[in-house]
Amino acid sequence: MALGPAWQDHGVVSLTPSTTGESVVTRIRTASPKLSPAQRRIADAIAADPQLVAFGTVADVAKEAQTSGASVVRLATRLGYDGFIELQEAV
Hints:
Layout: H1 24-31, H2 37-48, H3 50-55, H4 58-65, H5 69-78, H6 84-90
Helix pairs in contact: 2-4, 2-5, 4-5
């Protein structure tokens, strides 16, 4: 599944590379074919409102994506982050 227009490099999400050299956008694009439907909704929520991830909680992101907090954390780890806080720092 191709990511929607929100994931195009238009500054929607910070494109600053993380300590591993990959941006959040790059990591999501790489993982996209393997994401569950819930994880895709979370990725879409990140694209639509990066501030929600940067300054919100796991519960805030889960509510916006209509999924569970566990799915939010699983997405962060699937993307190679140690957890939600590291994902927050990368956005």
